[in-house]
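Slide 14.
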Amino acid sequence: MAYSSSSKSKSAGTEKKASISYWSKDKCDCPVCKKPFEREIMRSGNGRMNAGNLSDELHRDYIPSAKYGKVYPLIYEVGCCPNCYTAFLWNDFAPIKNPDIADRIYDNYEKRKKATEVIFPYFNLKKERTLYDGAAMYYMALQTYDVCDVDMLPTLKKAIISLRLAWLTKEIDDACADHNYDYVSQVFYRKALFFYQQALQNEQARTEKCSTLNNFGPDMDKNYGWDGVVYLSGLLEYKYGQREDIQLRLKKLSESKTAIARIFGLGKSSKNKPGPLLEHARTLYDNLTKELKDDDL
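Slide 15: predicted structure.
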């Protein structure tokens, strides 16, 4: 990651209050517009992150504390340049090899900003981020990766980002209902389904080396690897896939069941698989089996 050392810490003088994040003393250099901007980092420890349950979507819930309230660690995993609205997962803020891609990202900055304002009209990139601002940054990242070359593995990153956006917009809806973020969450779930399945197809066709991604998430507390990608593709199809064409749905569910069985050994125990993932895979396999059998009745 490229940094400029000329920045001044914003955290000075704020240590007296209970803070969730701080501003890095080093600025991040945007690889597109070349301008530096400040990076916000979540603090760790001292009861900020009280891990709760792990959902079937491999999403970790965090229990609110009296001191810090509800925290959303995911929102600090993405950065967005306030000058040209280029947004990436932090590890991708590095020089872009192909200058044409950098130009393409820059040329789309107004489009990214306007599209984001449609869903998140009051986002702010220059203050300590909120759940709302973090979700807006993720949406700009989704659009940024949309014009990136395959060497950045954009398809799987868009899958992970879309799934995280589904979670974050659901959190927004829980905090402030009746603003249609429940509908927005469903849209992002369907986007995640599309990109997860596209990542599997690209890997099989060898058009994008999706399985070489360093961290598959999908959340930030554990890397569930390529097995997690296969599992989530099947889970999202089961939960959020289309239901208008029943025969097509059953075909996709059957394919998902076969893939789950192949990887997890029909639910048999395996020391090589992460425990929680294996348990969720067993449940999904059973649910797929039940729906496919029920349709035969």
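Speaker note: The longest strand covers residues 51-54.
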